[in-house]
Amino acid sequence: MTILSLAQAQAIITTTLAEARSRGAQPLAVVVLDAGGHPVALAREDGATFFRHRIAMAKAIGALGMGADTRVLAQRAATNPAFFQAVAATVEGQIAYSPGGVLMRDAAGQVIGAVGVSGDTGDCDEDCARAGIRAAGLEQGTPEQAA
């Protein structure tokens, strides 16, 4: 199994924020977690609102804990709300069902961490996270998204 390095995490953050600036996005918070859910790096841009880093963390933790990007989780939650409300209660609210939480995989397809981004629309958050992951040379996403 590949271990996520600090250099990779920093590259993810740098590129994620550069992508956000190139899009004129609202100020973002970015969290990069390893496969165990431990923070490797995080950043909050000037002007990002108070809760953004916590929402970014909830997106990344949710993706790791459920084994799927938060876009997929949001789609699943829409069709099975009772279950996903129970999940949120079980994890004491540390999950966000909005795009912007993206799994990272090594070349063998093993999950090595997740990126959580919050601050703009879910679509923009997710696109910026994906740009950062690509810049670090990692695979991304939930398996069914690649199919």
Automatic annotation (TrEMBL):
Leader sequence residues: none
Cross-referenced InterPro entries: GlcG_carb_metab_protein, PduO/GlcC-like, PduO/GlcC-like_sf
Top-level taxonomic group: Bacteria
Protein name listed in UniProt: Heme-binding protein
